Amino acid sequence: MRIGFVTQLLWSRYGEFWVKLFAEFDAEIHFADKEDSLKLFEDERLSSIPGWAFRMAVAQGLSLADVDILVVPDLNSGDFGQKASAQDPWIANFPETLASQFSGLAQIMAVPVSLGPGIEGLVTTKLMNLSRDPTKARRALERHRGRLKAQRFSEPRWLKRASEKELVGLLAQPWINIKAELNLPDTSYVISQTELDPQVLRSEGQRYDDKLIPTDQEVIGAARLMARRGSVDRLIFIADKDAGADLNLYARLQKLVHKPLELIYLQDLTNPQQLVISF
After folding, report:
1. Residue 22, C-beta contacts closer than 8 angstroms, at least 6 positions apart
2. How many CB atoms lie within 10 A of CB 71?
3. Would you give the end-to-end CA distance of the chain in angstroms?
4. Which of 29, 129, 144, 214 is the most exposed place for a label (fewest CB within 10 A)?
5. Beta partners for 190?
6. 222 contacts 250 by C-beta, under 8 angstroms
7. How many whole angstroms separate alpha carbon 123 and alpha carbon 18?
């Protein structure tokens, strides 16, 4: 059985677990070729997809047309309201939207990006799709149950050193991580949202508005946490110019935080070739 993985969206949170797990069933693991994905990224069929990250994720999926199962991340599993980014179907339910918009793809298997003991039942169901042998599925889960735990995050250094004139908090949708491309002065110290525990951020954002989509709650939670830190001088929000959801989120941040908040477009910092997450 050939199993392909879309790696562009929050791969670091869930990918290793599922690759190791599915390898127990002698599956051939396939990843999208970078050059093929970049060519498909320019395909006219993908031009209406809002945002580089999702366009690249779809390009990866299309490039894996010859696999039997295509594993794709469910960024926002569960129930939530219809506010902000929840109105974008690609963010709200990427697997379902991918399947409905593009025919000819392999069988799509949606997996959550958040790991934890609470998803054991779902994992068992996915394994049964690969093997009808319950004993084999149970043994595979037992061997990899230790991986079903959230990633540990160390508390960042919130206090500035004498050589640092400013501490900058960097915000973005959680699938965007381009801290290195900001080209801030050497005297600036940056703490990125990606350095913080997403579960803590989601809880913080949920306290602010429990009707927001979980990934929006991450951004809102990071903004609230950073805004409360006296050592943080200003905030930067990186938005994809092609994604209306990003601009909607920025408007919410403007109302939320009282520290200086700067908007920087992803397209002004880098290009698609630098953003591809491939293996």
Report:
1. 3, 29, 71, 130
2. 27
3. 19
4. 129
5. 168
6. no
7. 9
Token code pair at residue 124: 């068992």
Of 61, 142, 151, the closest CA to residue 109 belongs to 61
Q: What is 180-226 written as a DSSP string?
A: GGG---TTEEEEEGGGS-HHHHHHHHHHH-TTS-HHHHHHHHHHHHH
d(CA 244, CA 196): 25
Identify which of 116, 6, 22 has the alpha carbon closest to the alpha carbon of residue 64: 6
Task: Tell me if residue 70 falls in helix, strand or coil.
Answer: strand
Residue holding tokens 């919130």? 158
Q: Chain centroid to CA 166: how far?
A: 28
Q: What percent of the chain has pLDDT over 70?
A: 99
24 has a pLDDT exceeding 80: yes
Calculate ∠ Cα 245-277-121, nearest 5°: 75
112: CB partners within 8 A, 6+ apart: 14, 73, 74, 77, 119, 122
Q: Is the pTM of this model over 0.85?
A: yes
